[in-house]
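Quick one:
INPUT:
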């Protein structure tokens, strides 16, 4: 489904070049949950952002269904319709309700408002928040806010979910509950998920674990 081919990423800081990814080769299969683990600074989030088209590689290619995602004619559509992003910080818009936050990506893609509202309600119902539709983010717990973020990420029915420490700000019990929701959604919809996490219990539940060390895949 997704092919990472000899991907390198180097950042230029003043007069210094900082290599973060050093030739990553990785295949992600349809329907799998892949966990990327490794120490801080190993390049996990950078790799995830490149997979999602949020950052560009210095060298190498990212192919989705054999098409280069960085083709300028396809990149915006790829980010908006193929990928669902879930981050450690939920980034909900504080002035909008839970329902309105979930509706936003579909409205951006010009889905009719009535259809979008019905779909957003269903997404919130699926993550157990049917009774929180009109609550503002400040009125929700951390776990509830993250579930709103999950619903928002999934409203456009993405094929690939990219999750960067999605439970990092939650206690262990709440975090496992949030991951269970993600796991159920992936399996129910035959979606694919790549998750970056420091949580060993979560990574153990993935179908496959890839470890990054110093910007390279650990093959030991």
């Amino acid at each position: 489904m997704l092919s990472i081919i000899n991907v390198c990423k180097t950042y230029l800081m003043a007069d210094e070049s900082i290599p973060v990814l050093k030739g990553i080769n990785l295949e992600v299969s349809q329907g799998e949950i892949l966990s990327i683990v490794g120490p801080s600074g190993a390049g996990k989030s950078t790799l995830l952002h490149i997979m999602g088209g949020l950052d560009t590689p210095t060298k190498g290619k990212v192919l989705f269904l054999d098409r280069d995602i960085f083709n300028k004619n396809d990149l915006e559509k790829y980010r908006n319709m193929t990928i669902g992003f879930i981050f450690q910080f939920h980034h909900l818009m504080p002035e909008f309700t839970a329902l309105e936050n979930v509706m936003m990506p579909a409205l951006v893609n010009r889905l009719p408002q009535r259809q979008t509202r019905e779909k957003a309600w269903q997404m919130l119902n699926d993550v157990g928040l049917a009774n929180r539709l009109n609550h503002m983010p400040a009125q929700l717990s951390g776990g509830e806010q993250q579930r709103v973020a999950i619903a928002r990420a999934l409203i456009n029915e993405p094929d690939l979910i990219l999750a960067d420490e999605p439970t990092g700000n939650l206690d262990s019990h709440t975090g496992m509950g949030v991951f269970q929701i993600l796991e159920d959604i992936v399996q129910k919809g035959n979606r694919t998920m790549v998750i970056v996490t420091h949580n060993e219990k979560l990574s153990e539940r993935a179908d496959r674990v890839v470890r990054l060390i110093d910007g390279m895949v650990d093959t030991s």
